[in-house]
Amino acid sequence: MRNSRPKNRAFACSAVAIGWAASGAAQTPAIKTVRIDPAVGPSASATRLNPTGRAIILTVGAIDGAAYLGDVPLTLGVDDSIQLPAQRLLDLLQPLLDPDAFKALQGAFAGKDTLTPADFSASGVALKYDPQRLQLLVTIDSGRRAARNLAISPIDRARVGGFAKPAAWSAYLNIRGSQDYNYTGNFSDGFGKPVFFLDGATRVGQVVVEGEGVYQPGAATRDFQRLGTRAVYDSQTLVARFTAGDLQTVSRGFQSAPDIAGVSIFRSYSVLQPQQVVRPRGDRSFQLDRPATVEVQVNGQIVRRLALQPGTYNLRDFPFTQGANDIRLAILDDTGRTQSLRFNLFLDQSQLGPGLSEFGLYAGVLAPLGLNGPNYTNNPALSGFYRRGISDSLTLGFNTQADKFGQLAGVEAVIASSFGTIATNAAVSHVRGYGAGLATVTSFQRLIQRSGGRTDSLTLSLETRSRNFGPMGTLIPSNPYRYEIGGNYSHAFTDDFFAGLDARYSRARFGFTNSQTYRASAGLRLSQRLSLSADARYEKDERGSRVAGLFSITARLGKFSSARADYDTRDNRARLSYQTLNGQGVGSYNLTADVERSDLGSGASVNANYFTNRAELGFSHFGTFDTNFGASREQRTSVRAATSIAFADGAVSVGRPIYDSFAIVKPYASLKGADIILDPAISGYTAATGMLHAATHPSLSAYAERTVAVDAPNAPPGTDLGQGSFRVFPPYRSGYKIVIGSAYSITALGNLLDAAGGPVALVTGTATELAHPDHTPLTVFTNREGRFGLAGLAPGKWRIEMLDDDRSVFDFEIGKTATGVVQLGKLGAVKGR
Questions:
Q1: What is the mean pLDDT of residues 547-560?
Q2: Which of 68, 669, 731, 782 falls between 20 and 30 A from 107, CA-CA?
């Protein structure tokens, strides 16, 4: 690094200079400190730089401000002229200069072996020799300097610290069951057939096999219907997922998502690297003519203050948010001059940073889901897409899919600017028997920042489809509209009042009727607990034209509950609803209920869910009636239950359904069956070991760091739970076996007495387990009475060695059945040692 100049360099240079000066002649006066500009040359009255009468070669340090660039040989001529080696100077200057400025300098000095400071007079680079410090001072105009990069925030933070190791073999099965009871209506009265949805996965090493199915005893076809099975391998090095089996295709643009059995490769940063920021980052330049302090603000928040030297700077890695971003730089230079710079960007979630790419390729045969499971055909099929960030403002992509009945090819682009974001998709298709078709969709988004943190939003869109357009899987194209155009605009007048307009128009074909909708909406917050909203709509379609209005009032009934009343002039529909939720994890619940009436009838419904340690339980009832709650039309009650069975390296647990990865937590024997609680909080906890002595943490997300806190409130006194938490970075569908506590959970209390029977007072020492001398020794402290407390012991023989004058040694043993705190009493020093 340039600023790590060797500390002895100035002394070495000074010694060489003094030695050379002294060797000139006894009568030569010593070199005196002078201050001249070598680019102009010494005046007649100036003190000589080199009075020796012959050329002197010095090795001096080249300095740029406070930065040490490196050493350079300097020749002082008999006439005080200065010569410098051309190539060495260019090597030192290249990293500092703008590429164009350096090329110009390189061309001007082509063929020269040596240079003088005067040679740089027109280049924007000034060189001065300081004989007092034996340094070559380099000054570069700010406009000629190379841009330097400054990271504003550590967006991609490196993972530090240790993580628990996933199980070599893990598996889980989720079981979700539902049972309906019908009172009246279109279904037979009584209990319906129970339905069970099954999904699970097993992971061995780096490979996952996963699948889904439905089991319905007494079904009209088979009781069990397999929905899909596949093997998955993720490569974090390639950031890619490889799959074989029943594929889960992902589509882009106008693509469909066909059922394909075969192989695939897929990259999505949100799936495989969810903690990486892949949207475009800030990269804005500014120039400083003088040293200055720069304050960086993003959307009104100060993110960093910087002390910078003159030059051109690129500010990278802004912590941008989706939508509009207001970036301001407040600059205060060393003369007191202030300057404000402002950059505006508009970012959309679908953008990718420069050089980043996402893709998916799915190949195999069509396998549509039948009554008994996937129906594997002989029809080859291919579907794929590719997207790449070209720059901060441009993301491009293309997609294609084909089978023997139809083909499609499309392109997409996302363009971001200070004015807004434009996204467009276009595709051409061919459907067998109908020919070619074309479809396009273009949208524009803009967020407008207002004072006080308020934001306006504007969205416009245009979609067109030709008569015969259809994605893969289309047998008969159906496109009743030539094009659809729409837009909406919303404005926040105050923090409590907003209003908006939106419109949509569809141009029909095939004898269909044009459709149009226009809507005005507004919302008003009356207080912290009460708010109003209203919509006025005009609609015109095949049913004619009509005007309607919707009015709503919402009341907060506490921190976690609310009620809402709605009235829609269409069909005179009135609705009253209530919702509440309480807690999180074990013991939490949520409830929604509503009643509704209209000219078409009336109804009531309720839905409730309760979360236990081992299962999720649900209840719902749905009922409809004639007119104003007259004769019953239909009444249906459902009860639901969902649970999981999990396995990881020999540990088995039952818990709530698992959504990706999981951890089985078990207590060590020393906890004597004490209950371990995961993620304890005021509002609840995630899971507990309970009577099964195993807890399932069901909601660990793949490739996302997670720290899980643990507690054992009823553990024996002195129990050691380790760090009280464990950290994981789970692979896809992985499982963990975590054991809380250890054999080293015993605390011993006692007094140490020396050979004379007196206390070993105010001394430190170490305790070592004799059976495991390689373990890290424990530190022992004694008070004035020789009393000590020692935690982290296990059953077995131990030895304490103290650092008193006698180097006293004490042996003791912890019994096999000991737990918690052990009283050792008075320990006498081992004699003969």
A1: 92
A2: 68
Structure-token match 């099975």, residue found: 229
Q: What is the H or E stretch that residue 20 is in?
A: helix 9-22
Provide φ and ψ at 460, rounded to 5°. -130, 145
Please check the confidence at residue 8 and state whether its pLDDT lies above 70.
Answer: no
Q: Tell me how far apart the alpha carbons of residues 363 and 244 are, in angstroms, rounded to a whole number.
A: 10
Cα separation, 674 vs 365, in Å, equals: 54
Q: Tell me the three-class secondary structure of 110-175, residue by residue.
A: CCCCEECHHHHCCCCEEEEEECCCCEEEEEECHHHECCEEEECCCCCCCCCCCCCCCCCEEEEEEE
Angle 796-802-806 from CA coordinates, rounded to 5°: 125
Structure tokens at 205: 């090493």
* Amino acid at position 718, single letter: G
Would you tell me how many other CB atoms lie within 10 Å of the CB of residue 317? 18
Q: Which amino acid is at 734?
A: S
Amino acid in the structure at residue 4: S
How many CA atoms lie less than 13 Å away from 817 in the CB half-sphere?
0
User: Which residue, 319, 322, 276, 277, is CA-closest to 298?
Assistant: 319
Measured between alpha carbons, how far is 502 from 301 in angstroms, rounded to an integer?
32
pLDDT of residue 30: 34
Q: Using the structure block, give the residue that is written with the tokens 């390689």.
A: 774
Phi and psi at residue 66, to the nearest 5°? -100, 0
Tens digit of pLDDT for each residue in 27-72?
Answer: 333 333 333 333 334 333 346 777 777 777 778 888 887 778 888 8
Percentage of the chain with pLDDT > 90?
Answer: 50
More confident residue, 652 or 349: 652
**The residue count for the chain:** 833
SS3 label, residue 670: helix
Both tokens of residue 109? Answer: 């000095």
For 809-818, the pLDDT digits (tens) are 999 999 988 8
Helix (H, G, I), strand (E, B) or coil at 452: helix
The overall longest dimension of the chain from CA atoms, in Å, is: 128
Q: Which residues does residue 174 pair with via DSSP β-bridges, in sequence order?
A: 199, 644
Residues 6+ apart with CB under 8 A from 164: 663, 726, 727, 728, 736, 738
**What HEC string does 684-696 produce?**
ECCEECHHHCCEE
Exposed / middle / buried, residue 345 (Cβ in 10 Å: 0-12, 13-18, 19+): buried
Query: Residue 183 pLDDT > 50, yes or no?
Result: yes
